[in-house]
Amino acid sequence: MGPAVCKVSSQMCVEQLSSSENNRRELEAAITSLKKELSFEKQRGSEESNSIQALNLAKKEANELAESLQVKLSEMEAEVLKLAES
Hints:
Radius of gyration: 37 Å
Mean pLDDT: 89
Distance between the termini: 123 Å
Helix content: over 70%
């Protein structure tokens, strides 16, 4: 090989290495970005899960209160009927 061929060949090698380095950096940046996005989505999912649990608890408490009020209403209606009969 003549000196000109070696020079072109080494220039191509440098360009390929530079291109590979750029690709590696881009991939690392993409991976970092995806890791951050994944972390954010996990956090959001956890918060949504906590919200759902809180809503389920509130629903259960509301149902228990409604049942208790229904029992009291039935008792009061029975009292009114007794008073009306006497």
